[in-house]
Amino acid sequence: MRGTWKNMKRIAGMLLLAALGVVAVAVGPIATGSAEGRQLVGQFCTNANAMPKPGACIQLSSDEQSAQGYTDSPNRTLTRTPGIYWLTVTDNSTAHNFSLESPDGSDQDITGVADTPSAVTVKVNLSHGTWVLFCEPHRAMGMYVNIEVGGVGQVG
User: Fold this and answer.
1) d(CA 32, CA 50)
2) Residue 69 CB: number of other CB atoms within 10 A?
3) What are the tens digits of pLDDT across the range 63-80?
4) Is the pTM of this model over 0.85?
5) Quick check: 51 and 107 in contact, CB under 8 A?
6) Exposed site from 6, 14, 74, 145, fewest CB < 10 Å?
7) E strand or H helix at 80, and its extent?
């Protein structure tokens, strides 16, 4: 029964992601720029300034720009133009997760806290505003990065 409930929650989460314009797809290599979107890469990182320990760090990269979220991080914002992005997160922890919050404040888990470590790729249509990639249990400790979306939409 427990596995069934977990599957039902995952399906409900996928439906909410679809409603937000986020579509989960199979994991695999994605081109860095194409007519179908650009790549964002999320992962957990290690930073000596992270509290309560160095592993309380989340990182997001795209092209040559990178941002890290940890306690009092001075570089937690990534800037992007509106459009389609492939967000690949590598969740190698059973103590953290990846969630994505849209500018309207709604959010959805991309990975779960107790899930088996894995990589997940989702297709995201980033609209103007501030998006946030975060670890739900540790957001208050600074495990989040902002994605500031503005300017003219992308072409490829």
Assistant:
1) 29
2) 28
3) 889 999 999 999 999 999
4) no
5) no
6) 74
7) strand 77-80
